[in-house]
Amino acid sequence: MTTQQLLLRLPEDLVRRFKRAVAPRERSKFVQRLLEQALPPDEVSDSDPLYRAALAVEQDETLAAEMAEWETATIDDGFASDASRNRSR
């Protein structure tokens, strides 16, 4: 795996805590692990549980009908776009 150097700007107090808590030769690996945990994967695989749940929701006819009802009920929710507000003046 190739690597790249990255310049980050962080608050001084956070940098001080980071340097105190993580050994110099462990800092890159530490940040890498945090980013891997916090960021979504580049590609969603078919085995991803959240992806599979979303597919199941899309295929559920009862839920699709209920969602259509909610859409109809919320179309006129009292919030108008800027364009439609300006036209009414």
Characteristics:
89 residues; 5 helices; mainly alpha; 60% helix; 2 domains; single chain; elongated
Domain count: the total is 2
Low-confidence stretches: none
Instruction: Determine the strand fraction and express it as a percent band.
Output: under 5%
Structural class: mainly alpha
How many DSSP helices?
5
Record field, number of beta strands? 0
Walk me through what this model shows.
The protein folds into two domains: 31 residues; 34 residues. It has five helices and no strands. It is elongated. 0% of the residues are buried. The mean pLDDT is 84.
Topology summary:
Elements: H1 12-21, H2 27-38, H3 49-59, H4 61-74, H5 82-87
Compact description:
With 89 residues, the chain is mostly helical. It has helices at residues 12-21, 27-38, 49-59, 61-74, 82-87.
